[in-house]
Design a protein that fits this description.
alpha+beta; disordered C terminus
Amino acid sequence: MNNQELAKIIVDKVGGKDNIISYQHCATRLRLVLRDFDKIDRDFIDDLEGVQGTNIANGQYQVILGPGKVNLVTGEVGKIVGESGSAQDSDEPKGNILQRGVKVLSDIFVPIIPAIVAAGLLMGINNILTSPFFNGRTDSIISLYPQIADLANMINVFSSAAFAFLPVLIGFSATKKFGGNPFLGAAMGMIMVHPELLNAYALGTTAPADVPVWNILGLAIPAVGYQGTVLPVLAVSWILAKIENFLHDKTPIWLDNLTTPLLATLITGFITFILVGPIMRNAGDMLTNAITFIYTKLGFVGGAIFGLLYAPITLTGMHTTPLYQLRPNLLQIRLCQADPLSSQQHQ
């Protein structure tokens, strides 16, 4: 049975495309949110060639297909169901607040996993080429064979792109999940990592007087990027989606296509750099400090707590935060006054 036939049968045996509210997939499972779960012919689907089992959890009917195959079958389901079934949420939230929160994060991060996996594996290849494994751990492959140094450099560029522009990926996926235009979300992610901003990774080694700021209406706003961050872009994506939908409702149809993207981006951009970004970055710093304290000071109890929290920490990307701890005091929006920070102009 080919993937097209399998997808057609699955759609038919869950009640047809009109019964499907949304569809998506993770690494191994086709996940369907249905209007009426009683219409599922579960025994028939379980016996299909290529189906490894089914499950109902978190308001989803999950068809286990295995890695690789799930991508192909989901694509065929999409052709049958169309855009009407591409929404990520049902009308009624399912499960308790923790389950709904985990589902939201899963819906956001699962689609970008392939990009992160590819980047991580490329980073491993780069480490193999550049780490000193030979002659008493003094020489690397590229030091022994300098003719491949440019190849290693190219691979390093490939591997770092997904992490350097992570807010773009998250902005697209999160804004789509929250009901907004995903391309506006990607644009907000681009704004947050714009090269004109001070790179977030460089903030920890930058003197306060050298941090660029925008002086606008009596506010000194640090012009600092959000490379590698997760919490700020999640919050910004939610705000963007809400503002965009509000503007769609209030703007005349003949003007909507012009002014809604403009105002949504402009308003969200100001909110990002004035309020949400600094607050969420500080929240990330505090979470990092709390996790570090628990893990290093509480012994085996801290290890147990850390193990319990590691799954949601990893899901949100916060397991990388110790790599880019930033100074919170540089991220506070303050009234312009005669101090080195507020007097420094954005370059």
